[in-house]
Every structure is written in C-alpha cells, then in structure tokens.
TrEMBL record:
Residues 189-533 form the UvrD-like helicase ATP-binding domain. ATP binds at G210, A211, P212, G213, T214, G215, K216, T217. It comes from Kitasatospora griseola. This is ATPase AAA. Coiled coil: none annotated. The keyword ATP-binding applies. Signal peptide: none annotated. GO terms for molecular function: 3'-5' DNA helicase activity; ATP binding; DNA binding; hydrolase activity. One of its GO terms (biological process) is recombinational repair. Keywords: ATP-binding, Helicase, Hydrolase, Nucleotide-binding. PANTHER family: DNA 3'-5' HELICASE, UVRD / RECB / PCRA DNA HELICASE FAMILY MEMBER. SUPFAM superfamilies: P-loop containing nucleoside triphosphate hydrolases. One of its GO terms (cellular component) is cytosol. The keyword Membrane does not apply. The lineage of its organism: Bacteria, Bacillati, Actinomycetota, Actinomycetes, Kitasatosporales.
Length: 689
C-alpha cells in the first residue's frame, strides 16, 4: 500500500499520489459544474402546459439531488488501466485506456468522462478481474480515504506473471473501518461472487442465502442501484421497493441508495405494505402461525365467493313501452361462466351487469331494434339489472369480511371446511368478537389476511422489482402479500435460514419462493464473511447443527485474534456490563449493548444512572453518543464495531421455544465487526460447547 511518504517507480509519474489528488479535486469541480448547469436551466421557453412544466421541474430537481457531492463519501474509489483501448475513438492507438471507477458518472466541460459509474460495463472488471482472468486489465488501483481525503493507494498488476497474489490491505481497511451512523455501502469492496448477484438479469428472481457478515443486505441494495442504472426507463414506470423487517432496520439502511445516486426507491415494512387497518392487537404464537399459513388463502377465497347466489328469478328490463326479459336459466349460465373464469371477484362484479345488458341487447335486435353501445351501458345501469347483480354477486368489503370470518364460527367453519380442523379454527376465532370492524383489535397477521382479501376482490398493482430482506422470518401469507407486488416484475430475496426467529420462519427457500410466486428463482449461497471476525463467527457457528443442520458454517476473511471474550460473572453483572461498555467506547466506532427484550428497561435505567447516553436501534450515532441499547428482537440486520452481549440464557428463554431462542442468540452473537464481549451469570447453552 502506498502512502503520502512512500515512493513509486512509475517512469513518467514522480508524484502519483499528488496526481490522484489532483484528479479528485478536478472531478469534484466537474461535478459541481454539472450541478450548476442543471440549476441554471431556464424552463420557461421549453414547457408547454403547466402540467408539463411541473413534470419537467420535478425531473430537474431530482437531477440536482442526484448530482450532490457528499463531502465524506469518496467520489471514486478505484482505477482500471486497460492493456488496449476500449473506445472506438482510441482503437487505432497503441496504448490502453485509464478509467476511474466511482459512485456516479462525472464528465468535464468537453463531455469526456472523469469518473465512470461503477455500474457501467467498463467498470465490471474492477470487481471481476483476477490474475487468472485479467479481463484485459493491466493494473487495478484501489484508493484509501480518511474523512473524504485521498490518503493512500494500492496497485495490483493483474497482467504481470511475476507478481503473486497478496491480500489487499486497503480492501481489509475499508471493510474494517469503524461503523458510524447508518449502514455504509460496499461499492468499493464488492467481491466477484457478490458482483454476479448484483448484475444478474432483471427478468429473473434471485434468492440469496447469506451467512452473517457476507454482505447480503448491501448486495441486495446495490442490485437495486444497478437495475435502476441498466433499466432506468422500465423501472421508472413500474417502480421499485425495498421491504425490511422493521422501521429501525430501514432507517439503518436508508442512506445506502442515496449515496449511490438513487433517490426514488420506496422502503416499507410488511406491516406498512398491508396497512388497511390500524394494528392494535397481537396474536399468540400458535394463532399467528395458523393465520400465516398458506391454507388461509383458500379459506379467504371460499369466504369471498360464499355470497355468490345463482339466480332464481328472471331479470325484466323496461325501456319505454317495451319489456325485455332475461330468463333465470340464462342468467345462471352467465353467473356460472364468470365463476368458472376465475377472474377477480370485483372484476366479475363489474362484468356481470354488462353481460346481462348484452343479453338484453340481443333480444332487442331480435325484436327489430338497432341498439348501440350507449344503449348497452344504459341497460347495465338499469335498476332491475343492478338488483339482479346485487342478489347474485353481492359487493365484498375486505375488512368487514375478515371481521366476520374471525367472529362467526359457522361462517369460518364453512369457509375452512377441509382446510382447517376444529382446533385450528378455534385458534383463529376471536375469543370475544368485537362489535364492529372499526373497534376490532386487529393483529399484524389479520392485516395480511385483509390484504389477501383485497387482492381477491381487486388485483394489487405490481412493481418492476422488489427486494425482500430478512425474508426467512416471513410467513407464507406474508410472502404472498409481497409476491402480489411483483407478479409482473422480479425480486431479490435475501435472508439466512439460521436466523429465522419467528414461529412461522420458513423451512427452505424453495418453499418460500413458491409462496412468493417465484418457483423458478435462482438460489445463491454466500458463505464467505467480510464483517464478522473469524473467531466470533466460529463461536456462533457452534449453534448451527441445532438451528439449521443443512447449512454450511460461514468462514471469514478476517483473522482478528482477541476479538472474542466470553466471561462468566458470578455476581455484580451490571457493574461488569458498564465496565465492558466503557472499554468498548475507548475504541473508535459504534458500540451495541444487546440484551433480552425483558432486560432493556433495567439496562436503560442502569445506563442513565451511570451517565452513559444510549441510542435506540436505527438512530444515527454522534460524537457524544456511540452506544446503542439493542433489544435482541431488533438486532437482526444491524452491525456495530463492538458488541457487549448480556446473558445469553435470558435471550434464549425470552423466546417461545428453545430453537427460536438459539436462533435469536445466533443473530445477537454475529453483530460485531471488531470485537464481541459475552457476559453471563447463568450457564451458557450446551450447544455452545
């Protein structure tokens, strides 16, 4: 690695670091000029109507935001020196070309590129090239930064047969850099196996099984950024969405995409996605498991269609002095045909009056009249036709229907016949039915049932691409809810089966993808960790045979001797916790104190009494507050430089069953980037050895 004081043997470059700093300054100036050019645009002479003016102004505002220069975020992080020219303009020359790889495209006043977007095809060798396959790259250069200032560089001469493989010191330093604030992007450290996932084709769904610290979340977010670059117009029309497990997690990751220049990606939890009702209640684990079971989809379908009634009376339409009669048997044929077509309930309800009106028009033509489409529409609105439709195909309110299903034992029994047994039906029913849907104590699982019902009535709009993180914790019905949002698009599914901590956690990715509606998805497995030190991940992996027997244990590229401390504290555990927190805070970066949820109020009081400020999960750290108090239930997906873990036994017993408790512990043990201290008074679980 080259530093400001080191020398280099480039024949024509006596001050390489100074030249790179100059290029950085020139690139930043060029980016500023690009932004100023957009800000100076006068739209008064190029817009037609006020509507087009608003649309154009919005596009300009978004472009200005995308061109923001983030002072502490490197504008470029690498350089590729090609052996031969890439562009046609230089194809006749004898030498190669040089490209700086960064977060966004930057060009000079003449339009020549100064920084190439990392997503561009010419940038791909920065992540994929190796000595075995140099991809026409003579040299790959990585840059090191401190507080936004370029301070070092490191070269790999990929086409030099005499240079051996060495571990990148800058790459390691970037991975190990202290975590401060929200989640960082990994664009400078993407590995070949990660890059393959990031650049996978938009038409296919990718499922990533990733052990802790393998970067699966960041890979998913970078995949969104790549797809928006490669398929900008398509996704601008159809939209993209990132689904996370909770709001704290989304706050943690929300700065990754803006740092890559992408501002228009929606983020939501599953609960926010299906927010048809206010969630005020909670289900017992067994009840939630049944409500989340895929069989409930058929129960709801039966309930929605239970009101359909075959007509017993004819429909008589009076127009002027004439009466047109559609007999009951003909109406029955129409209703049965709509039932057999298996279209949405609401779409069928809209089609039925038109079908009846068409039958009337046929009779009018047979009677010598010449009706047109306007007559058919008028007949469809006729009171007699409306009455027939209401009797045969009554309107369905999704909220009211689910309220009835959970309140009325007979209605549920009819809808669940052959699907749920008596005990399961009893679990689903409210013990004390509320008077109305408005006062019902809706649970998160109930909201998903309402969303399923709403889709049975009217089709849910589909997006172009959806990223689902921590997907192992979703129920089959939640998968269906997300799948409805990408029926015509693709998805990136991210998770770790070993970290499944809900009673309904998925047993296999094949099963999960089936419920998502993406049976043909490609499954990738990431087992090489970059975040968690080897000593820590090896310790946590002792739990794998008990929590996920089929998974291979993760490995780590980072050897950090002394990164794990496990200490039994016979007495004075709180004093030991405080001491451990103070020790961790002596290091640079973030610190997480993770404990069983029931212990959080006690620990909050302890920290306050000690004058030690602490943050809630997802809150950005500051110079004055770098300690976050983390309930074990919210630790998933988060990372801290140093972690102090309180009482593993309490984390296990805080869950409804032992395996779920061990999985929660596995999550908590794998949040540390630089050091983990485990303090316990009670015996450790035997699975840890």
């Amino acid at each position: 690695m080259h530093s400001p004081t080191s020398t280099d043997a480039f024949a024509a470059d006596t001050d390489p670091l100074g030249r790179e700093r100059s290029h950085l300054a020139a690139s930043r100036a060029a980016l500023t000029a690009m932004r100023e050019d957009v800000e100076a645009l006068d739209l008064r002479d190029v817009t037609g109507t006020w509507v087009s003016a608003l649309v154009l102004q919005k596009q300009v505002d978004e472009r200005i935001k995308a061109l923001a220069d983030l002072a502490h975020t490197p504008l470029f992080f690498g350089r590729l020196d090609y052996l031969h020219a890439i562009s046609e303009a230089d194809s006749e020359g004898s030498g190669g070309e040089q490209f700086y790889i960064g977060r966004r495209h930057v060009h000079d006043a003449d339009g020549d590129p100064m920084v190439i977007d990392w997503r561009a095809p010419v940038s791909q060798p920065f992540y994929r090239a190796s000595r075995k396959d140099p991809m026409d790259v003579a040299k790959r250069r990585r840059f090191g930064y401190t507080g936004g200032e370029l301070t070092a560089y490191e070269d790999e001469n990929l086409s030099d047969p005499d240079e051996g493989d060495t571990r990148s010191a800058l790459l390691a330093a970037e991975i190990e850099k202290p975590r401060v604030g929200p989640m960082r992007d990994i664009v400078a450290t993407i590995q070949p196996e990660q890059d393959e996932i990031v650049r996978a084709d938009i038409t296919g769904t990718v499922c990533v099984q990733g052990a802790p610290g393998t970067g699966k979340t960041a890979v998913g977010l970078h995949r969104v950024a790549y797809l928006l670059y490669a398929h900008r117009e398509r996704l601008a029309r159809t939209g993209t969405l990132v689904v996370g497990p909770n709001r704290s997690f989304l706050q943690y990751i929300e700065q990754v995409l803006p740092a890559l220049g992408e501002l228009d990606v929606a983020q939501a939890t599953v609960q926010e996605l299906v927010g048809h009702v206010e969630v005020r209640g909670a289900d017992a684990a067994d009840t939630a498991r049944i409500k989340g079971d895929a069989r409930m989809a058929q129960v709801l379908r039966n309930a929605v269609r239970s009101g359909i009634t075959l007509p017993a009376e004819p429909c008589v339409v009076v127009r002027g002095s004439r009466r047109w009669r559609v007999p009951a048997y003909e109406l029955e044929e129409i209703v049965r045909e709509l039932m057999a077509r298996d279209i949405r309930y609401g779409a069928a309800a809209e089609a039925l009056p038109q079908r009846i009106a068409h039958a009337v028009l046929v009779k009018m033509e047979q009677g010598g009249e010449a009706p047109d489409d306007r007559v058919q529409d008028a007949v469809a609105r006729n009171a007699a036709v409306k009455a027939t439709v209401k009797a045969c195909w009554p309107a369905v309110d999704p909220v009211k229907l689910v309220h009835r299903l959970l309140s009325d034992a007979e209605f549920l029994a009819a809808a669940a016949d052959g699907l749920l047994d008596a005990d399961e039906q009893a679990l689903v029913l409210w013990s004390k039915p509320p008077r109305s849907a408005r006062t019902a104590p809706w649970s998160a699982a109930d909201a998903v049932l309402i969303d399923e019902t709403a889709d049975l009535v009217h089709r849910t709009a589909s997006l172009g691409h959806v990223v689902v993180d921590e997907a192992q914790d979703l129920s089959p019905m939640q998968y269906r809810a997300i799948g409805r949002r990408c029926t015509t698009g693709s998805a990136t599914v991210l998770g770790d089966l070993a970290q499944g901590t809900t009673p309904w956690a998925t047993g296999s990715w094949q099963e999960a993808l089936h419920h998502l509606g993406k049976d043909g998805a490609h499954i990738e497995e990431l087992t090489q960790g970059f975040r968690v030190p080897g000593e820590v991940i090896a310790y946590a992996s002792r739990l794998l045979p008990a929590i996920a027997p089929g998974l291979a244990p993760a490995t780590s590229v980072r050897d950090a001797p002394g990164s794990l401390t496990v200490r039994q504290v016979p007495s004075g555990r709180d004093d030991a916790l405080l001491a451990a927190c103070h020790d961790a805070l002596r290091h640079e970066g973030s610190v997480g104190l993770i404990a069983a949820d029931a212990r959080i109020p006690v620990l909050a009081e302890m920290l306050e009494a000690a004058g030690l400020p602490c943050l809630e999960p997802g809150t950005e750290t500051t110079a004055d507050a770098r300690l976050t108090l983390v309930p074990a239930s919210l630790a998933k997906g988060l990372e801290y430089d140093y972690v102090v873990l309180d009482e593993p036994a309490a984390i296990i017993t805080g869950e409804p069953d032992h395996r779920t408790g061990l999985r929660r512990l596995y999550v908590s043990l794998t949040r540390a980037v630089s050091g983990l201290t485990v303090l316990h008074t009670e015996p450790l679980p035997e699975e840890l050895g």
